[in-house]
Amino acid sequence: MIGRLAFAFLLGGATLLHAQAIATASRVGDLQIGIGYTAAKPDYGQQSFQGVAAYADFDFRPALGIEAEFHQVNSPNGDQSYQRTYAIGGRYHRNYGPVAPYAKAMIGRGDFNYPQGLTNLGYNLFAGGLGADYMLGLHLRVRGEYEYQRWSGFPPSALTPQLVTFGVAYRFANRLR
After folding, report:
1. In sequence order, what DSSP letters do the residues of the chain get, joined into one string?
2. For residue 156, is the peptide bond before it cis, meaning its omega torsion is within 30 degrees of 0?
3. Which candidate among 7, 91, 113, 129 keeps its CA 20 to 30 Å from the CA of 104?
4. What's the pLDDT tens digit per position in 96-154?
5. Please, what are the domains in the chain?
């Protein structure tokens, strides 16, 4: 008899232990990872550079997030010069239907490989950008972006490259909103 009462008590108590509802629509944030084509005005000589970009955005609030990016743009004339940048910073965006315009401010590091491979030097940089993502369904986004960089310490005063990037990203979406 005591065994049956203990068994009934345990079964009845188990439902009390799980009476709290578990949140099913919560999430930490939205992540998207993308690649792109970049055209740059390098602010060194009279030429344009072309190359690639990779980026990752993590939005931890409905309009706020962070972005990490990489750019590699090369001289088209075969002189071995290039600009390579790594940057991270904050971004603010708004959603208007499938369009999500954004602004970002970043800090990072830029490597400049001088013509003919004479030397490769690194500089600290600050960057600001404006762009928009266009949502193609739940997981795919296309991007257009303009970015202005300022490399401090580049002789004689500073280097100010301007970049335009067109990209595509995969969004790791949480279906529960």
Report:
1. -HHHHHHHHHHHHHHHHT-SPPPSS--S-EEEEEEEEEEEE-SSSS--EEEEEEEEEEESSSSEEEEEEEEEEE-TTSS--EEEEEEEEEEEE--BTTEEEEEEEEEEEEEEE-GGG--EEEEEEEEEEEEEEEEETTTEEEEEEEEEEEEET-SSSEE--EEEEEEEEEEE--S--
2. yes
3. 113
4. 999 999 999 999 999 999 888 778 899 999 999 999 999 999 999 999 999 999 999 88
5. 29-172 (2.40.160.20)
Residues with Cβ within 8 Å of 95's Cβ and at least 6 positions away in sequence, in order, are none
The first and second tokens of residue 59, run together, are: 């939005």
Is the pTM higher than 0.90? The answer reads no
